[in-house]
Specification:
- By secondary structure, the protein is α/β, with parallel strands linked by helices.
- The chain contains 11 helices and 10 strands.
- Strands 3-2-1-4-5 form a 5-stranded mixed sheet. A 5-stranded mixed sheet has the order 8-7-6-9-10, sandwiched between helices.
- Helix 4 runs antiparallel to helix 9 and helix 9 packs parallel to helix 10.
- It is globular, with a radius of gyration of 21 Å.
- The two termini are 34 Å apart.
- The relative contact order is 0.17.
Length: 317
């Protein structure tokens, strides 16, 4: 068949660091992949231009790799998932893409769909922040957490570092137990005291992702035997298990075995992951596929197809 006769499907993961895109044909075989720049907030200054460029780059590269003309390609269905709410992106995408069906959704849904290969289940995401999201066999969805760093995101990397700084401050002020987190945080940041670091963390020199990056340091101190660091990680695991269970309770029968996938840098901590697994009576597993593949699965789903994916590339995340 020539490419013009094929029914084509598009999946895009519009992320805050990059925008991967996958083009597949109806059997589930991936024909081409591309990656564009970040495209998170359309409303921000220069946001529309950034967004448009990221989509054109990623879809254009995927088209070229699939030997398709980006200027004339038409999709049977396209699914694009974004952080920061999909609402303001729909009309822009209508101008950028020619597709019979356009699905604009959240990054949580495409992460879930990729993680469970489109099957019912739950995904718990713990990066800088945290959220759990699930979908049952009938298509009902539920979420828990994801309230942002001021009011929630317990168990996420920013929260882990917040707890670590609090432990260091308590020790410094004489109302908390000794902890190696104090010296480790000062060594990593060049701050003269925990109080100095507290003030630095409030400045633009330390944006949230930079603060969150010190969660690795908490894991390292816990692995060396620091009790305060280990407690912080075990509490984070408890919070993450709580949001996972909340989604399970709302969507599935008590005791029903469902796949609970996890994603995000926080789960790289063996101490935290072991504690998290131990708290859940579910099949806990890493994701089957990434979010871009999840978006492609959702594009197939919109057209009433369920195709096993093949020829998937590796995306560096």
């Amino acid at each position: 068949t020539g490419s013009t006769d094929m029914r084509l499907f598009l999946g895009v993961d519009g992320g805050q660091t990059s925008t991967p895109a996958l083009i597949g044909e109806e059997t589930g075989r991936v024909l081409g992949a591309g990656v564009g720049g970040p495209c998170n907030h359309v409303g921000a200054a220069g946001g529309r231009e950034k967004f448009t460029r990221a989509i054109k780059e990623s879809v254009g590269e995927a088209c070229r790799r699939a030997s398709l003309d980006p200027a004339s390609v038409r999709f049977e269905a396209a699914c694009l998932g974004f952080s920061g709410g999909p609402e303001d992106k729909r009309e822009l995408l209508r101008e950028l893409l020619r597709t019979e069906r356009l699905i604009v959704t959240t990054d949580a849904l495409i992460a879930l769909s990729g993680a469970t290969a489109g099957e019912p289940g739950i995904i718990t995401i713990a990066g800088t922040g945290s959220i759990a999201y699930g979908r049952d066999a009938s298509g009902r969805t539920a979420r828990a957490g994801g309230w942002g760093y001021v009011f929630g995101d317990e168990g996420g990397a920013f929260d882990i570092v917040r707890q670590a700084l609090r432990a260091a401050l308590r020790f410094e002020e004489g109302w908390g137990p000794a902890t190696t987190l104090h010296s480790a945080l000062l060594a990593a940041t060049g701050a003269s005291s925990a109080n100095d670091l507290l003030h630095r963390f409030y400045t633009t020199e330390f944006p949230r992702p930079r603060i969150a990056s010190y969660a690795r340091l908490v894991d390292a101190e816990a692995a060396k035997g620091d009790a305060a660091a280990a407690d912080i990680l075990r509490n984070a695991a408890k919070e993450l298990a709580a949001i996972t269970m909340a989604v399970h309770t709302r969507l599935f029968r008590p005791g029903e075995r469902v796949r609970a996938a996890y994603i995000g840098g926080v789960f790289r901590s063996a101490i935290l992951l072991d504690a998290y697994r131990g708290l859940l009576e579910m099949e806990v597993a890493p994701p089957a596929y990434g979010p871009a593949a999840g978006a492609l699965i959702e594009a197939y789903r919109a057209a009433g197809l369920s195709a096993p994916l093949s020829n998937l590339p590796e995306f560096k995340t």
